[in-house]
Every structure is written in structure tokens, then in C-alpha cells.
Amino acid sequence: MTTRYRTEAINDDGGTMVSRVIGGMTVPVTNPLSPDADLSRSNPEQLLALAWATCLDATLQAIVKNAHRTRVRVEVELQDSPARGGYEFHVTAFVSAEGRTLAETEDLVTAAHDRCPISRLLQGASTVALRAEAWAG
Predict the structure, then answer these.
(1) Rounded CA gap, 104 and 97, in Å?
(2) How far apart are CA 64 and CA 4, in angstroms?
(3) d(CA 114, CA 120)
(4) Is the pLDDT at 137 greater than 90, yes or no?
(5) Which of 92, 86, 102, 91 has the alpha carbon at shortest distance from 134?
(6) Would you call 93 exposed, middle or buried from its count of C-beta atoms within 10 A (0-12, 13-18, 19+)?
(7) Which of 65, 71, 93, 120, CA to CA, is 20 to 30 A from 49?
(8) Rounded CA gap, 44 and 137, in Å?
(9) What are the beta bridge partners of residue 83?
(10) How far apart are CA 137 and CA 118, in angstroms?
(11) Diameter over CA atoms, the chain
(12) What is the DSSP string of 61-124?
């Protein structure tokens, strides 16, 4: 197996100050459940939504060969986990494709979810869903 790219991120303050990429960006972070949360800072929910939306849309564009626009909107909810205790993410990606029917968009969703590296991490999770929707450009 060939490594195409490698990165490393570090957080050593419990998610209340900064997370950083070695040799790259520093992201101010906060715990959104904290009573004194600084909502101008990012949190894991936002970063997961951003990462999956970016990866899934890039995969869609590779599939359609940039022939038309696509759009991915990802919602992440932090919910209580009664069965396991603590919390869990519930994540839904909404995909639309310009000039495509809903059925054609559903086919694109299936193909992209099978190919996108972040989707591959999430596949099979009971708290993950994908939805095709009408073009939302």
C-alpha cells in the first residue's frame, strides 16, 4: 500500500484551547456544552461536518468529472447515548447535484459514499445517514 499523504494533529488541552496540525494550522477550539463556551471557536462537531462535506463533495466532483456542480451539506448532532453512556454523534449528509434527477443523485450518493475516505470510516455506523435532495445551489 502506498501512502499518498500523511498529516498529524495534536490536542493536549482537552479541547478547550487549540488543536493543531504539525507544520500547519492551529484551530481555536471549545467545548460547545460548556456554560462558558466561546462559540467563535470550533468544536469536534463542526470539524467532522467540515471534513466529511469537503471529502464527499470532492469525491462527487471526481465522479462527475467537474461536468456540473454538486453540493454536500452535513449536519452533526451530539446526542446522549443511553445504551453506552456519554454522548455520540449523529451525522447526516445531504447531497444535491445540478441537473440531476433525485434518482440520479441517489446513484451519485451511493458511488461517492463507497469511494470517499471519510465515508469509508463512517460506513456501517448506525448513527450515520446520507440523503439525496433536489439541487440546492
Answers:
(1) 9
(2) 22
(3) 7
(4) no
(5) 102
(6) buried
(7) 65
(8) 26
(9) none
(10) 23
(11) 47
(12) HHHHTTSS-EEEEEEEEEEE-TTTSSEEEEEEEEEEETT--HHHHHHHHHHHHHH-HHHHHHTT
- Is pTM beyond 0.85 here? yes
Residue carrying C-alpha cell 465522479: 63
Which pLDDT score is estimated for 120?
97
> Once rounded to an integer, what is the mean pLDDT over residues 3-20?
92
Q: With beta carbons less than 8 A apart as the criterion, state whether 93 and 74 touch.
A: yes
134 residue type, one letter: A
- As a whole number of angstroms, the distance between CA 28 and CA 41 comes to 5
- Average pLDDT of the residues of the chain: 95
* Orientation angle between helical segments 44-64 and 102-115, nearest 10 degrees: 110
- What the block records as the C-alpha cell of 105 is 443523485
DSSP label of 18: E
